[in-house]
Amino acid sequence: MDLGLENVHIIPVEQDRVLEYWFGDKVVVGSMAEELVRGNVRSLIWLSPQCLILHPPFQFDLDKLYEAAFRPVHIKNIGLPTNDPLDPFWEAVYGTVGIDGLSHSIRSFVDGHEIRPYFNTHIFSVDPSIGILQTWLEHFREMISDEGFQTGPCSDQEHQIFLHQAILSALVCKMLDWEKVRILSQGYSYPLHLHQDVPIHNQPESLNQLVCPVYEGIYQHPETLNGLEVHEPLKTWILNNMPIQEDT
Q1: What is the DSSP string of 13-50?
Q2: What are the structural domain ranges in the chain?
Q3: What pLDDT is stored for residue 247 in this prediction?
Q4: Span 164-220, pLDDT tens digits
Q5: What is the pTM of this model?
Q6: Which of 65, 37, 191 minimizes the C-alpha distance to 123?
Q7: How far apart are CA 178 and CA 186, in angstroms?
């Protein structure tokens, strides 16, 4: 496939049973990308299709100070409160990647829970020389093939959906220096689909202030914005370039 864009290459993905699992495509493609650019770039950036780039995303550039850049999860979902003992799911994840316990914590952005490190994967940046994404695929493949784990701690849909995030979060703590993990500011991966649930003090005044917001499903203006204002010239650009929700 030729998109007619300079330095844009389409790389086919071979069939893999991992692709049949929740977000297995992200794990496989991330691993492939890391292998392709390892030794050639310092910052490998993952962007999910459901995002808008509204300002130069400079914080993705790891320079010499960082090894990765992530946002905390939007909501706690399967995240584990900092003071709670490991449950069977997280115990299995930590055991697979080879860590005993963690002294660090993060706060989920929307619902404000203090939890063990658990990162969002809509958008992130990593140093490919470390090999974290290829290790991610190895452990992901191992855990989705573990019948006891899949029929036990990971038998419900919620844990299956977020297994990929849990494994990568554990690997961040295992393979990277915590001081070298940049926590992206809230203008990155801001959840437009959850805007009305974001605490007022964390809500931007307009879409224009955000760097790289994300959404779920198909972008439909203005419904996807959930009441967030858009100022010119961005408003006209969106109306001319993004799908518009039509009345039914």
Answers
A1: ----GGGGSTTHHHHHHHHHHHHHHTTT-S-EEEE-SS
A2: 17-183, 189-241
A3: 47
A4: 999 999 999 999 999 999 999 999 999 999 999 999 999 999 999 999 999 998 888
A5: 0.93
A6: 191
A7: 19
Half-sphere CA count of 171, side-chain side, radius 13 A: 22
For 7: left if phi > 0, alpha if psi spans -120 to 50, otherwise beta; the answer is left
Residue 123 amino acid letter = I
What one-letter code names the amino acid at 170? Answer: A
In this structure, is the dihedral angle defined by the CA atoms of residues 224, 22, 93 and 16, taken in order, positive or negative? negative
Q: What is the pLDDT of residue 248?
A: 42
Distance CA 152, CA 167 (A): 17
Task: Calculate the CA dihedral of residues 151, 164, 224, 53 and round it to 10 degrees.
Answer: -170
Query: Which of 99-113, 187-201, 234-248 has maximum average pLDDT?
Result: 187-201
Strand-pair partners of 47: 123
Nearest alpha carbon to residue 72 among 158, 181, 205: 181
Phi, psi of 153, rounded to the nearest 5 degrees: -60, -25
219 CB burial (10 A radius; 0-12, 13-18, 19+): buried
pLDDT category, 4, cuts 50, 70, 90?
low
Give residue 246's pLDDT: 54
Give the strand pairing for 68-70 and 123-126: antiparallel
Contact present, 123 and 69 (Cβ < 8 Å): no
* Summary count for the chain: helices (H), strands (E): 7, 8
